[in-house]
Amino acid sequence: MYNALTGMGGSGQVDSTISANANVATHACTAGAALLLAGSFYKYLGPRVCLLIGGWTYALYAGSLLNSDRRKNGGPFVIAAGAILGLGAAFFWVAQGTIMVTYTNDNTRGRAIGVFWVIFNLGATIGSLASFGLNYNSKSGTVTDSTYVAYIVVMLFGWLLSVFVCSTENLSGHYHGNRITQESKAVNWTNLKRTVMETLRTVFNWKNMCLYPMFYTANVFYSYQQNAVNGMTFNLRTRALNGALYWIAQMAGGLLMGFMLDLQIVNRRTRAKIGWSILFVTGMAIWGGGYRFQVWDTQRLRQGLKQDIDYKAGSEYLGPMFLYFFYGAYDSFWQSFCYWIMGARSRDPVVNAVIVGAYSALKPAGGAMAWRINAEGVSAMTQFAMNWGLTAGSLLVAIPTVLTIERGDSKIEPSSDHE
């Protein structure tokens, strides 16, 4: 639902500056809390508590947008709600990512990521289609109040489902990965000291550090694609429709990348090379097409044409629509590979919580930077160039880690002392 909301450009508001600044607050707070709080102390809280801490903050943010839409002066509340959402999202995403990469093995990890990506983006797809229907005849440029109310209800329902999530120590015998023992979860000086040392050892592992530029880039794409491409080019109902197509592409892309990363005919290291190659080749092709679009759109903006293209506009609509679709697919390729390579290096939930915490800290840090640049009104072409440059550069930096992924489980990353 949150993705559906932000994917409409400006979170359904006429003035996208408020939502852009709220996204800065969200990403900055997530970056600060993900590693220092959620990642480091995951083993003491467990996934259920982390999800319950984080889930309700999404509904608060949607409620702040409803308040802003009705009162016309709710900017400070939206930004404050965005900051609270950032803190909650840190716990939410560390728990989600740790479950996904730990409760799996080499034969199932890619598909698990793909299935998650379908479920995750199905909500955004349905939300975007609902927005398309609810705002089909809207002339105001903002979504209706009922759209926000619907998001709030679904978000709260999803939050309550967190009570059914269990920790590794409660899983059945079918789970063969490391388990967190009750003794290691006790809050005492010995365990806290061990937690700090485990965190530092994981964070400063050079193989993990080579992945950090990719982690940082993971959320940079959104501000340009959602506000500059979708938000400035199409009218409201078409933005909602494009949002649905974007998230559908995410589902398809996640499944495709998951399938490729689960190939049984090759070893783990070869799968890593295949995943990296897919990212590099498709990235250069998609961003190359994006350059042509941005040159065209910049000329339109100089003529005063913005937020005017409707989905019924024929060929004028189809080209940008397909580009936006492939942008969505590429984002799923990128994040699926990031999650997969984290799980490929360790089956330990504590180690994975830290590296997922680093991922959940760095990607919103990049997102905060990108949303701030967007809010400052930096030209779309400059934002585009930043996106393409970060894509290519971070992939090159990740090569040493990709080439040193172990071929099988016999030499997988050492676990911590709490099995």
From TrEMBL:
InterPro entries recorded: MFS (IPR011701), MFS_trans_sf (IPR036259), UNC-93-like_regulator (IPR051617)
Transmembrane regions listed in the UniProt entry: 20-42, 49-66, 78-103, 115-136, 148-166, 203-224, 244-262, 274-293, 321-341, 353-373, 385-405
Topology of the protein relative to the lipid bilayer: Multi-pass membrane protein
Highest taxon in the source lineage: Eukaryota
Gene3D superfamilies: MFS general substrate transporter like domains
Keywords in alphabetical order: Membrane, Transmembrane, Transmembrane helix
Keyword RNA-binding appears in the UniProt entry: no
Cellular component terms per the entry's GO annotation: membrane
GO molecular function: transmembrane transporter activity
Subcellular location, record wording: Membrane
Coiled-coil features, chain-numbered ranges: none
Protein name per the record: Major facilitator superfamily
Species annotation: Penicillium roqueforti (strain FM164)
